[in-house]
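Title: Prediction job returns without error message
Component: structure pipeline
Severity: low
Priority: P3
Assignee: unassigned

Description:
Job completed but the reporter wants confirmation the result is attached to the right record. Sequence as submitted:
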Amino acid sequence: MSIPAFLLAALLAAAASPKPGATPAAAPRKGGCEVRVNNRTSYRVLVHFDGVYWGWVSPQHSFAFTGLSRGTVIAYGTTQFAEFFWGPQPLKCEGTASWDVTL
């Protein structure tokens, strides 16, 4: 198992474990959220939120991912061939949030 896959598995396991005072996973969160990913690297970054692949951000570009649930979102990024990876990075998203990916 590669390191990025191992980290994603750990992320999913941590997200699945109940936390004191947390709302049940089945309870929908009101509204939506937008996360702007600022890729400050020379690599294409593949982006995952809460263990789900959402797309990529080209080198030296930004992209806004919309439609995420409000609340804490766990962000994770990797290069196409897993040379580098970022996260897991918790982001508090109450409407908008941003994540700078740098080397």
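Comment from assignee: result matches the submitted record. The chain has one domain: 3-13+30-98.
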